[in-house]
Design brief:
By secondary structure, this protein is α+β, with helices and mostly antiparallel strands. Helix content is 33%, strand content 27%. The model has no long low-confidence stretch (mean pLDDT 93). The structure holds flavin-adenine dinucleotide. Flavin-adenine dinucleotide binds next to β2, α2, α7 and β10.
Length: 290
């Protein structure tokens, strides 16, 4: 492996480095990129290590959302009191990533940047309506997370751009969420299929709902049609069963080494049903499922 190594110490230095650089990858935890380099799937000319850029770290709360630095590791997310209280579905998803060793170094920014359709934190972030802050030398913008993904392993980020913050909407009273994953083995399993659900109820009515899936399409997806149908429906078992069937009909998964399309389709229905039921139960409890 032959590459130039850059190790900026501040955001300013990082953006300056990126301004003149081509053919590079970032190094956050390295759990994806180092494996890809070893397997010769990628051979970048340059590696930009993000780990000394303090501005990319930390988790804080603000009005109706959490600010999460892309360098937050899965363990930090899983153990954060703020995430456990206001975005517990994300803590649940982070807790399901790989093994403790992977969670200790793998980051949420890397999980997004790697753009795997199976990334576990992404469906949870999608149902929390996450906005991604992207910066380059002379520009800063915010995009909905859903608009970041182009295809397997590909994002719409262009050269010079880096994800600098995630704005994750807090779960409030009357709202509930759940993450459900089906992997091949319990530990170290990349998802065969994963699903996150968020809903807001008023008495017995579903006021708003978001459903996201991983591993059923080239990118993580939201089930916008099913969400639209659920809005205004009664929050009850029969409705959840119908929504589960609609979800199964809506997705077009593929066969691959981890599973078959048929298995993914039927599993999708049960994950949506289970997700809706758990989210409803939580919406009816107090805020914060520590
Ligand atoms: C054994 C094993 C098991 C795994 N199990 C799971 C699992 O169960 N679930 C799961 O979801 N993943 C799993 N993974 C994949 C991986 O651990 C995660 O995707 C992890 O979150 C990647 O984070 P990282 O910090 O290591 O990323 P890195 O490898 O450092 O980077 C990954 C990619 O993201 C880009 N990137 C990093 N930071 C930024 C940023 N701030 N802005 C823009 N782009 C950025 C990099 O350029 C690179 O392309 C597993 C990996 C291994 C090796």
């Amino acid at each position: 492996m032959n590459f130039e190594y850059y190790n900026p110490k501040s955001m300013e230095e990082l953006l300056n480095v990126l301004d003149n650089l081509r053919n590079y990858y970032f190094l956050a935890g390295g759990t994806d990129i180092v494996v890809k380099m070893k397997d010769k799937i990628v051979s970048p000319q340059n590696i930009v290590d993000l780990n000394d850029v303090q501005e990319l770290k930390g988790i804080s709360s603000e009005e109706d959302h959490l600010n999460i630095g892309p360098l937050a590791t899965h363990t930090e997310i899983e153990e954060s009191d703020l995430v456990k209280k206001y975005a517990y579905v994300l803590a649940e998803a982070a807790a399901q990533v790989g093994s403790p060793q992977i969670r200790n170094i793998g980051t949420v920014g890397g999980n997004i940047g790697n753009a795997s359709p199976a990334a576990d934190t992404v469906p949870a972030l999608l149902v929390l309506d996450t906005t991604v802050q992207i910066e380059s030398k002379n520009h800063k913008e915010e995009k909905n997370l859903l608009d970041i993904f182009k295809g397997p392993g590909k994002t719409f980020l262009t050269e010079g751009q880096v994800i600098t913050k995630l704005k994750v909407r807090s779960i409030k009273e009357g709202e509930g969420a759940a993450f459900v994953k089906m992997g091949k083995r319990k530990a170290l399993a990349i998802s065969v299929i994963n699903c996150a659900v968020w809903l807001r109820v008023d008495k017995d009515e579903i006021v708003e709902v978001r459903i996201a899936f991983g591993s059923v399409a080239p990118t993580p997806i939201r089930l916008l049609e099913v969400e639209k149908w659920l809005k205004g429906q009664k929050a009850e078992d029969d409705v959840f069963k119908q929504a589960a069937q609609m979800a199964q009909d809506a997705i077009k998964p593929i066969d691959d080494i981890r599973s078959t399309a048929e298995y993914r389709s039927t599993t999708a229905a049960s994950l949506v049903y289970q997700g809706l039921k758990t989210a409803l139960q939580r919406a009816r409890e107090e805020v914060g499922n520590e």
